[in-house]
Amino acid sequence: MRLTPREQEVLSHVMRGRTADHIGREMGISARTVTKHLENAYRKLGATNRVTAVLLARQLGMI
């Protein structure tokens, strides 16, 4: 279970409390694409929300 660099980047922004709109503007992608990256990360990590995804990714040294 590996996160793509984009999924890792999105989770890094989420860890700092950014919204999908804010992340999208910073990364030059749509908020929908940000949401899709999050959904993929949730699936790979077995998470159901942002907080759990960030915690698991941090524990696994992914972000």
UniProtKB/TrEMBL annotation:
InterPro entries: Sig_transdc_resp-reg_C-effctor (IPR016032), Tscrpt_reg_LuxR_C (IPR000792), WH-like_DNA-bd_sf (IPR036388). Keywords: DNA-binding, Transcription, Transcription regulation. Gene3D superfamilies: Winged helix-like DNA-binding domain superfamily/Winged helix DNA-binding domain. Residues 1-61 form the HTH luxR-type domain. SUPFAM superfamilies: C-terminal effector domain of the bipartite response regulators. It holds the Pfam family GerE. PROSITE patterns: HTH_LUXR_1, HTH_LUXR_2. PANTHER family: DNA-BINDING TRANSCRIPTIONAL ACTIVATOR DEVR_DOSR (PTHR44688). This is Helix-turn-helix transcriptional regulator. It comes from Lentzea kristufekii.
